């Protein structure tokens, strides 16, 4: 059993904007503190043998300038890499290109914080229709997988993969995540009715519920 509310509450979420050369972009930032050090956390999120234990199988050249591909999901180019502090990459999926930046920071108690910022152009139709939850719920699931892997050493996708997402527990996780991203959207200054409509569409898409 997954402690759904506990995991949702352990995560910080923030929605914002960033100005890029091509114009204004929306940002969705998610972070969680884990009971491990920065070096182990860096290995967990960059080692191609460990990444599938909490996220997805990955192939390619995982180094600066290299191309990567997640099985059945996004691919891209690794644009920056500063071990064990940070890396960034393009996130190319469905004909759209966005960017992810990952930052690891030590906590005073010896633990480490994982923070991921997903950056997408405002003209991306997905944002207008679904808001930050479009990518946010998926990243919430990834952080859940990372939590399980770091706590147990086991392969999280076997426990919280697509089959789990279709269970009542998995749907409740998506619902609570969607609500949390809705709150972050409103906190960023978005119109509350707009944020609510985006969240309802996103939650329905993830849970299979009819609107």
From TrEMBL:
Residues 38-125 form the Activator of Hsp90 ATPase homologue 1/2-like C-terminal domain. Belongs to the AHA1 family. This is SRPBCC family protein. It comes from Actinomadura monticuli. The lineage of its organism: Bacteria, Bacillati, Actinomycetota, Actinomycetes, Streptosporangiales.
